[in-house]
Amino acid sequence: MEKRDIFIGGAWPYANYNMHVGHVAALLPGDILAKYYRGNGDNVIYVSGSDCHGTPITERAKKEGRTPEEIATYYHNNFKTTFDNLGFEYDEYSNTMSKHHIAYVEEQFKKMMENGYILEKEELQDYCENCKTFLSDREIVGICPHCGGKSTGDQCEICGDSLDSSEVQDKHCKLCGEKTILKPNNHLYFRLPEFKEKLQKLIDDNKSTWRKNALGEAQKYIDMGLVDRAATRQLDWGVPVPVKGYEDKRIYVWIEAVLGYLSVGQEVAEKRGINFDEFMSNENENLKTYYVHGKDNIPFHTTIYPALIMSLKNNYRLPDYIVSSAYVNINNEKMSKSKGNLITADELLSMFPKDTLRFYLSFKGPETNDINCSLEDIVQTHNKFLVGMLGNFVNRNLSFINKKFDGVIKEASVDESIKETTAKSIELIGMYFEKGEIRNAVTQMFEYIGLANKYYDSREPWNQVKNNIDDFNDTTYTCTYMIANIANMIAPVMPDGSKTIKKMLDFPEYKWGVTEISGDYKIKNLQILYDKLEEINLN
Description:
Layout: E1 5-10, H1 21-39, E2 43-50, H2 55-64, H3 68-85, E3 92-95, H4 99-114, E4 118-128, E5 133-134, E6 140-143, E7 150-152, E8 169-173, E9 181-190, H5 196-205, H6 212-223, E10 229-230, E11 232-233, E12 250-251, H7 253-258, H8 260-272, H9 276-279, E13 287-294, H10 298-312, E14 321-325, E15 328-330, E16 333-334, H11 345-351, H12 354-363, E17 371-373, H13 375-405, E18 408-409, H14 416-434, H15 438-459, H16 461-467, H17 469-489, H18 495-505, E19 521-522
Parallel strand pairs: 1-2, 1-13, 2-3, 13-14, 15-17
Antiparallel strand pairs: 4-5, 4-9, 6-7, 6-8, 9-10, 11-12, 15-16, 18-19
Helix pairs in contact: 2-3, 4-8, 5-6, 5-10, 6-10, 12-13, 13-15, 13-17, 14-15, 14-17, 15-17, 16-17, 17-18
């Protein structure tokens, strides 16, 4: 089978606060996809990074008496450590402060201008007379025109709608609380309406590959009416605008952050000696592109990012798969800093093994709807599935052999019906992975593990060992075959469990597909695959 080219972009977390469980749930499918495709031997470029520019970081820096770079660097390093602890394997995890990214964005911005998609406007912009400064959208607080809820100048905190600051009602300066006035200011704008027909076609053409929430939010965004979007903002922290007269402004973060997929992708390609323009070309029939993110990022990935790509006229592939997750609620409440109910990824990692979190958020994750998460449910799910099903099958097989036969598994026959079922299961799991249906893939894995437990019970090896040693050896060898294939099946989702199994039986390294076994096996360093967890009280 010819190697495929796979591009996976994981959303860039904002370097202003610790990552929480919702971030992990949204971003985890990207790492699972990367592991799956690498196991197939495909050419994978999997990238992400920290979004380090914008108003919230400058606001926090002012409050803490630090520089924006210090704030962003601290959280960027924290994110890298967290991703490592979760078992993520990016080809490169960068940040928007990098010299390469800044140079790349400036170059692409010039191309957009040359291609006629950036225009200059004098606009009436919100101004605070008390602070004597023009305000960016995040520095404005007011009332959402759609639901009447509290909002900033760019997004409603209640209904989640993306907003233009001109729509927000009863606006005040977030810094001092004074009512804003309007004052003329020059800014550059991106001509988003120019791409309405092409964006509609993109949505229509991807009804089978984008998640339903992505299709719905993208269509909603277009139906609300596309407008020219401000491409510059009044800041001194960000990517400089490569246009004379705009030295006091920076490129709007919504442009430069999503271009990070391409800036970092290009870096990875160059290190490998790959022509990135050819790799990402729409003419590359061997290419699949995946973009993995949360619900709040859907408009940026389904409309704005594709429009930016089209404005560059470089014939790059538009998103093939939008893997967009819904929200994670904690004990039936939406997570928020103000409520103080955020559970950070680092807090979860201090309580649970990474395999437990990866499995839970894959098996019960917010693929199609918001989910309610509790620590008690994580414990119960771990104990039921990882201990009661997966660990039970592996450990009772190997413990029995270790006790009765000094850990030696004799070569025998593998049940043909099990071989057939295994091949079908692996094919189905792979199909689900490629469609971005992680929950279905994991469900299928545990259907196979459930079958394995039933097979073991139905064969009654504890009786066969006394009555018919040949039948016992066939049962044991068939179970060993299933253990070998389970180790591969679970590798993209539960890499530690997979490695533990492989070490105990000296199986070859992970490679996607049916694993055949031959010869005798000697169990090495037998250990419990997953320990039972005690109940945890959230309070």
